[in-house]
Design goal:
By secondary structure, the protein is mostly helical. It is 78% helix and 0% strand.
């Protein structure tokens, strides 16, 4: 499946021939038809694989955040400090994933889907994007003292995620600007520090001048 994701990511759905897909996976073309019902079925299976892998990395932290919010609901909800810690934890799990070599082919695949969404995007969005961003909206709503369903909180949640995924989708610029030769534990530590700083600055507008 990794081979198929790589081919689709590099060439797009239309540009990825069944011959290239079969060759990358080291199977014959008939096997693609048998197991996936053709190229379209393989493309959707590739999207499902990406969704499953991201959920395995990030969803446990997001689910823990949702569980803690539910548990504290009867007590008035999470404190800003608790929400901040949970938010940072989820974002750091995202960071660990996006800087990994494993995520490179996924990023190419998903960038094409962001530009020209298909049924595959809907699967990925509903499968992991929406649940994770919804959790971030709940936590950021607490930090901004605002309705999590508001457009402002939604935009802030997306921008906050953008701080993290930039390090994958703009990897060439990151490496050049920061003079990084590779991305390892040291570089991940720098990204985690950035996450802590970003999360620390999420607060209501009236608190911006507070220390």
């Amino acid at each position: 499946m990794i081979a198929a994701i790589d081919v689709f990511g590099r060439h797009g759905f239309e540009g990825a021939s069944t011959r290239a897909l079969a060759g990358a996976a080291n199977v014959n073309i008939q096997a693609l038809q048998y197991y996936f019902g053709g190229k379209q079925g393989l493309y959707l299976a590739a999207a499902d694989h990406i969704g499953a892998r991201v959920r395995a990395h990030v969803s446990p932290a997001a689910e823990a955040g949702r569980a803690q919010m539910m548990a504290r609901a009867a007590e008035g909800g999470l404190t800003p400090a608790e929400a901040r810690a949970l938010l940072a934890g989820i974002l750091k799990e995202m960071a660990r994933l996006v800087v990994s070599e494993e995520s490179g082919p996924w990023a190419r695949f998903m960038l094409r889907e962001q530009m020209e969404p298909t049924e595959a995007f809907e699967r990925v969005y509903e499968g992991f994007m929406r649940p994770i961003v919804d959790t971030l909206r709940q936590l950021i709503g607490i930090l901004l003292a605002d309705d999590p369903k508001s457009e402002h909180v939604g935009a802030r949640a997306l921008a906050t995620v953008g701080h993290v995924i930039f390090f994958r989708f703009a990897r060439a610029a990151v490496m050049r600007q920061l003079d990084w030769q590779s991305v390892g534990s040291r570089e991940l530590g720098i990204l985690n520090q950035l996450i802590d700083e970003t999360v620390a600055n999420i607060r209501p507008a009236t608190d911006k001048g507070a220390s």
